Amino acid sequence: MTTEAVAGATARTLARRRRRRAAARFVRRYRTRRAGVVGLATLALFVLLALTAPLTVGSDVASVTGAPGRPLQGPSGAFPLGTDRFGRDLLGLLVWGSRISLLVGLLAAVLSVAIGAVVGITAGHFKGAFATVMMRITDWFLVMPTLVLAIALATVMSRSLGTVILAIGVTSWPTTARLVRAQTLAVESRPYIERAKALGGGHWHIMTRHVLPNVLPLILAQTTLMVSSSILAEATLAFLGLGDPTVVSWGGLLQDARETGAVSSGDWWYLAPPGIAVAGVALAFTLCGRAVESVLNTRLGVAR
Fold it and tell me: Which of 31, 65, 74, 189 is least surrounded by Cβ atoms within 10 Å, i.e. has the fewest?
């Protein structure tokens, strides 16, 4: 084995050790955040329910034909959360709907943060006229109400899960872009960036090898925070009748309850459980995001 190969293997080994130590340090610090641990446990419960839904409630729970109960039946031993207007078990629908709500929230958040990260890094790196144009576009999206833009997109496009994910993702990225741009400017002001440029490092090398690793903690924290907003946005679009009518989601259940008149008729079991589920998951993601942010941000972690 040549000297270069030995040096490369040693460098890779050291890099793996540093990553393992960093991961262990992150876990130790995260465990000291009680709110973050509670949020993570809550998320684990919801994810477990979503993954095991085909086994626990079955895929036929959403079928309107052959519903097992009477329409709008109150909570009982057979139906702990009652039935909907078709006689379907609301507990089963709640469990099955968690699959769609969590999936849409996660994918929309990833899309939003990805757009924001690309815009923020490129605007912070290239500066000049390009950065000015990108930031003015970002400002335009920032001052426009996100929900209004999402409703407009969901209205003109076909009603599907892809439309909902796209509508939420392409309208909620400006905050991430501004945060990432500020962090990129701070990173590129450091001396080792000047040394990398002097040694011949190109734009792609600087952005991917030096800037991106330094803004990844911010991107990760922003992703966990964006998931809760995306779940709330999906529930709002479904509640307004702009979701996919062929799938069951928590927002869709709320929209069905509104159409049925659950509020005026006092059918609380139809309205409360999906609303509590949306609020619970959003709160859990927020707690996890705040905990991740405090762990990754050393100064904030010391302050807390």
Answer: 65
